[in-house]
C-alpha cells in the first residue's frame, strides 16, 4: 500500500446485513476519496465458510485499494443462554473474542491504518484504536432516526424507560419522531437487564469518537439528520460531527463465474426478462429472517389470492425466532426443499406465474429489474435502500431489531409502503397479505407510492453525486482523517 494515502480499517460485525454496507462504504472511500481500506470480516463458528464463500466477498476481492482479512471463526455458544441466545449478545461476544487477532494483524502491517471505522457492534475496539493512535469513527448502517435513538440512550432517564416499558408511553427523542411502544426494540421492553446496559454503554462510547457516519441522506430524513448536528436539539448531547453518507447500497460488480455457478441466478433473471414491466412482486425477509410454518403457509395462500406474478425467497421455517437464520443464511438445513413447507400443490399451481427460490436470491439485481413492481420486505435497512434506489414500493413486514421503526417511517412518513399487521397469535392472515400486495401492485394507491419512491430514488442519487450532500459529508470526513494523519506524522517527526 502507498504511504501517502489514508489507510482505514473497517470492522464488519458478523452477518451479511452488516458486511454489505461496510463493503459499500469501503468502495466509496477508495474510489471517491483515495483511501486504502482493510476490511476485517468478523465471523462466527457457524457462518465463516458461508461468509467467505459469499458472492459479496468474491465481488470485491479484485477491487483495487481494498484488502480483506477474514478473522478466525469464533464459537461463543458456551457463553449464551441456550434457551434465549440473544443475537446482539452473540455478535458482541464474537467481536470481543476477535479483537486480539485484529490488533495483532494491525500491528504486523507495514503501513498500518490510521483510521478505525466500526459498526454499532464494534465499539469495544475503540480503546484499542486510540491506543494505536488511530482516529475513530462509528458507521451506523441504518437511518438517522434509529441512529439518533441509540445516541440519545445515555440521556434517557429510568423514569422515561419505565413509562415506556410499563405504561407503553412513547420514548421522546429531541427533534425526532417519538418511538411508539408498538415499534420499540426488544431491549426497551424490559430495559433493566445486562443486554440493555451493554447497549447503553456502547452508545456512551459512540459519543466519544471523532465522527459518526449514517447510511442515509438529508432529503430522506430532514428532521433527524438536522437534529443530530443541531446544538439546540440533539447535537447538544452528541457533540460529535454526524455525517449522513448514504444511500450506500449494493452495486453489482461483474465477476467471472465458474461453470454452473450462476445457473440459478440466470434462471431467475431470465424468467424476469420474460415478464411485463412492473408486474412481479418480490418477497424476501433478509439474510436471516425466518417465519413459522403456519405463517409461511398463510403467505403462500395470500400470494395465490393476490393473483400476482412473484419471486419468493423461501427459508426453512422456524417457530418463534424471527432471526434464526442470521448467521447461517445459506445453509440448507437438512437438505430442505421448498415444497416441504408450502401448501400441497402450491409450487405446481403457481409454476407459470411464480418462482420459489430456496435460501438466497440475487436481490439487488431483482429489484433493479424493470419487471419488478413491488417488494414484500422485513424492512432491514439495506433492503429498504435497495428498494428505494430501484424505485420499487414496498409491503413492510417487520420482524426484529429496529425493523418496526423502519416500517413506520416507510408507511407513515415517506408514503412508499403499506404495512402488514399480525393478528392475535402473531400471524398475518392470507386475506390481508393478498390485499396488501394488490394495494401495491394494482390499486391507485400503488401508483402514487411508485411516484413517491421514484422521487426518493432521484434524491438519493443526487445526494451521492459530486457536490451532493452525502458526497460532501464523506469529503469532510476524509479531510478530517487527512488532518489527523498530518498531525500524527508531525508529532512523530518531533
Ligand atoms: N440479500 C440478498 N439475497 C437474499 C436475501 C438478502 O442479496 O436472498 C441481501 C440484500 O440485498 C441486502 C442484505 O442481503 O443487501 C440484507 O440486509 P438487510 O439490512 O436488508 O437485512 P438483514 O439481513 O441484515 O436482516
From TrEMBL:
One Pfam family named in its UniProt record: UDPGT
SUPFAM superfamilies, A to Z: UDP-Glycosyltransferase/glycogen phosphorylase (SSF53756)
E.C. numbers: 2.4.1.-
Chloroplast as UniProt keyword: no
One example GO MF annotation: coniferyl-alcohol glucosyltransferase activity
PROSITE patterns noted in UniProt: UDPGT
Keywords: Glycosyltransferase, Transferase
Record PANTHER family: UDP-GLYCOSYLTRANSFERASE 72E1
Record family assignment: Belongs to the UDP-glycosyltransferase family.
Protein name: Glycosyltransferase
Amino acid at each position: 500500500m502507498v504511504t501517502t494515502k489514508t489507510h482505514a480499517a473497517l470492522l464488519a460485525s458478523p452477518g451479511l446485513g452488516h458486511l454489505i454496507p461496510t463493503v459499500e462504504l469501503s468502495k466509496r472511500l477508495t474510489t471517491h476519496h483515495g483511501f486504502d481500506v482493510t476490511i476485517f470480516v468478523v465471523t462466527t463458528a457457524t457462518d465463516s465458510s458461508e461468509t467467505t464463500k459469499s458472492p459479496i466477498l468474491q465481488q470485491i476481492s479484485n477491487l483495487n485499494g481494498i484488502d480483506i482479512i477474514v478473522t478466525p471463526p469464533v464459537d461463543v455458544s458456551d457463553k449464551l443462554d441456550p434457551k434465549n441466545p440473544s443475537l446482539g449478545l452473540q455478535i458482541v461476544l464474537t467481536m470481543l473474542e476477535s479483537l486480539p487477532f485484529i490488533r495483532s494483524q494491525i500491528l504486523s502491517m507495514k503501513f498500518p491504518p490510521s483510521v478505525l471505522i466500526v459498526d454499532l457492534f464494534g465499539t469495544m475496539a475503540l480503546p484499542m484504536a486510540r491506543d494505536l493512535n488511530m482516529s475513530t469513527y462509528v458507521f451506523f448502517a441504518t437511518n438517522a432516526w434509529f441512529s439518533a435513538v441509540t445516541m440519545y440512550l445515555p440521556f434517557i432517564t429510568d423514569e422515561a424507560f419505565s413509562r415506556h416499558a410499563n405504561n407503553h408511553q412513547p420514548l421522546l427523542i429531541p427533534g425526532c419522531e417519538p418511538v411508539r411502544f408498538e415499534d420499540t426494540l426488544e431491549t426497551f421492553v424490559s430495559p433493566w437487564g445486562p443486554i440493555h446496559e451493554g447497549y447503553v454503554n456502547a452508545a456512551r462510547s459512540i459519543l466519544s469518537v471523532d465522527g459518526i457516519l449514517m447510511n442515509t441522506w438529508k432529503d430522506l430524513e430532514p428532521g433527524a439528520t438536522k437534529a443530530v448536528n443541531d446544538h439546540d436539539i440533539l447535537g447538544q448531547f452528541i457533540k460529535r460531527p454526524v455525517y449522513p453518507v448514504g444511500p450506500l447500497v449494493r452495486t453489482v460488480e461483474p465477476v467471472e463465474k465458474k461453470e454452473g455457478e450462476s445457473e440459478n441466478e440466470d434462471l431467475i433473471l431470465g424468467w424476469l426478462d420474460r415478464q411485463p414491466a412492473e408486474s412481479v412482486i418480490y418477497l424476501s425477509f433478509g439474510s436471516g429472517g425466518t417465519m413459522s410454518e403456519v405463517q409461511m403457509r398463510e403467505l403462500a395462500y395470500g400470494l395465490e389470492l393476490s393473483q400476482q406474478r412473484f419471486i419468493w425467497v423461501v427459508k426453512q421455517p422456524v417457530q418463534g425466532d424471527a432471526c434464526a437464520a442470521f448467521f447461517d443464511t445459506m445453509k440448507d438445513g437438512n437438505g430442505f426443499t421448498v415444497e416441504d413447507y408450502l401448501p400441497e400443490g402450491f409450487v405446481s399451481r403457481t409454476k407459470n406465474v411464480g418462482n420459489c427460490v430456496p435460501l438466497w436470491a440475487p436481490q439487488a439485481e431483482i429489484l433493479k429489474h424493470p419487471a419488478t413492481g413491488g417488494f414484500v420486505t422485513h424492512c432491514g435497512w439495506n433492503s429498504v435502500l435497495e428498494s428505494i434506489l430501484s424505485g420499487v414500493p414496498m409491503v413492510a413486514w417487520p420482524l426484529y431489531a429496529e425493523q418496526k421503526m423502519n416500517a413506520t417511517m416507510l408507511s407513515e412518513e415517506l408514503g412508499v409502503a403499506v404495512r402488514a399487521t399480525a393478528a392475535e397469535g402473531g400471524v398475518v392472515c392470507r386475506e390481508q397479505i393478498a390485499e396488501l400486495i394488490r394495494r401495491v401492485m394494482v390499486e391507485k394507491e400503488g401508483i402514487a407510492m411508485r411516484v413517491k419512491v421514484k422521487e426518493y430514488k432521484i434524491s438519493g442519487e443526487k445526494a451521492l453525486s459530486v457536490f451532493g450532500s452525502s458526497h460532501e459529508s464523506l469529503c469532510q470526513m476524509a479531510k478530517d482523517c487527512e488532518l489527523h494523519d498530518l498531525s500524527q506524522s508531525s508529532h512523530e517527526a518531533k
